[in-house]
Amino acid sequence: MFERKIQNTITEYFNGEREKILVIDGARQVGKTYIVRALSKKHFKNYVEINLKDDYDNLKLYENIKTTHDFYIQVSADSNINLNNRDDTIIFLDEIQVYPHLLSMLKPLNQEKKYTYIVSGSLLGITLKHTFIPMGSIDEVKMYPMDFEEFLWASGVGKNVIDYLRECYLNLEIINESVHKTILKKFKEYLICGGLPDAVKEFLNSNIIKMRQVHEQTHNYYSDDCSQYDIEHKLKIQRIYEMLPSYMENKVKRVQARDVDNKKHARMESYADEFEYLIYSGISLNVNAVSDPKFPLIQSSSKNLIKLYFNDVGILSNILFKNNIRAILDNDKGINLGSVYETVCAMELKAHGHELYYFDSKKVGEVDFLINDYDNLNVLPIEIKSGNDQNNFRAIPKLVKEDGNYKIKKGFVFGNKNVIIQKNNLITLPIYLIMFV
Predict the structure, then answer these.
(1) Closest among 395, 382, 393, 392 to 433, alpha carbons compared
(2) C-alpha–C-alpha distance, residues 68 and 217, integer Å
């Protein structure tokens, strides 16, 4: 079993008072079911797993359950084990989004304290947004593909090495060159395989063909999963999703409403349902534009100027390069890896709990990412460089200029070189150190 950071959250829940039910929300194939199953079996004598999507597609035994009593009877009939009490029995409700009425039932189930529960779903974000959930009944946790640090753990990189890198990041100290070369190579491998656990497993087994099959299948799952919509909405969702790589390769990377239906005067508001699905399902990461970068960023963000990234960089690198992994590993000068680098950084920042924004100003220019710096009640701009020229930027120095208009205290530029330089308020760092932001 790959070590995942969410293990700590789940273990703390199992060992705590369990006053609310833990709900794990994430896209398909990010590893939710596997990690919940493994930890549940470790902590509880009796383990019951109910895949509600399988039930919905077949017997629909849970479709008309309206009371907790009916629920207990059905679970007992399904489990084939002697259910006891909440200290030794856990019930895992997987893919609960297919039965929203069971989400509303979680509060009385938890209040009766008959058993312990844990819940997950792959399209849960959308369901939660449109379902009444009694206040104080759940703790929702987002789960993402494996981040770069988790990939390093899986790849056998010692935690002492990661601790050394963290100290270099915090103290702005240059990294040992041999360590830099090793970790940069691992970072490029991560660009290839991404963080879907099944893809990581195949990559570590040196089976690139099977790894790419995981990427291809997952990409198809994500495209097809919007089946709860009517055909018109479904086709628009799929159209936007399939256009993401082309947007990332454009000079202007934000999504253009006119491209969805080839309507010149289309407005973003016309596709609110489509964007809601792509974002709340977890298959796309949204980055909203900000023209006035002041803390907190949500106050000045624009919902109509949006960039979308795939939730996993392996899906993108499969679309762009298929099995030609040397294009990434060898840093081919003829290949533009800008969209790949930006995608992996969006993944990393999102997995660390950051809401993502980008700076866009005709007068000043564009900066790849802005995040809220809650420690300093300020804004942190981040620029990503995929090539060898880490000094080719226009806008970010103006944002962090000490006597400038924006009062931003520092900014980061991440690139491939082994340099850690602070010039005025701008700090240049190796790309992989973004795992500590």
Answers:
(1) 382
(2) 37
DSSP lists the bridge partners of residue 422 as 427
pTM attached to this predicted model? 0.95
> pLDDT by residue (tens digit) across 317-332?
999 999 999 989 987 6
Strands 378-384 and 411-415: parallel
* pLDDT one-digit tens code per residue, 372-404: 999 999 999 999 999 877 777 889 999 999 887
Q: How confident is the model at residue 257 (pLDDT cuts 50, 70, 90)?
A: confident
Non-local CB neighbours of 29 within 8 Å, separated by 6+ positions: 196, 197, 198, 214, 218, 221
